């Protein structure tokens, strides 16, 4: 995979139906129902200084689009996960990673079952029960809060 901004190669592990388009963009699903893919960074991230034990913070940015077959019905969602594991073995498309003992999941979700609505972002830490969940929105340059629709099929940068 290639970082389109810098042209530098990026090493990721893909599984399921995930693949890289010719332009270097990863695609984690295809038009087949109930099949998904995953992309994992293969090297461990260090979150603690080994000398004095201080914790590091993590900041990341990525863009994604959820393009459902039927706009009004939506689709699955997208999750950004930090875990001890490099892959999800035996995961079904609409389930969460329950087999992990230590994980952090930020999920952009269109499924309203057990959630606040069908257009939300949530944080889960080591549990299927969300630690925090809010309707998807963003703030403009003038600090005005604007709603954002995950079902719209448009590119979203987080």
UniProtKB/TrEMBL annotation:
InterPro entries assigned: ConA-like_dom_sf, Legume_lectin_dom, Leguminous_Lectin
A GO molecular-function descriptor: carbohydrate binding
Keyword Protein biosynthesis: no
Positions of the Legume lectin domain: 11-156
Record's keyword terms, sorted: Lectin
Regions that span the bilayer: none
Signal peptide as annotated in the record: none
Family: Belongs to the leguminous lectin family.
Record-given protein name: Legume lectin domain-containing protein
Taxon lineage: Eukaryota, Viridiplantae, Streptophyta, Embryophyta, Tracheophyta
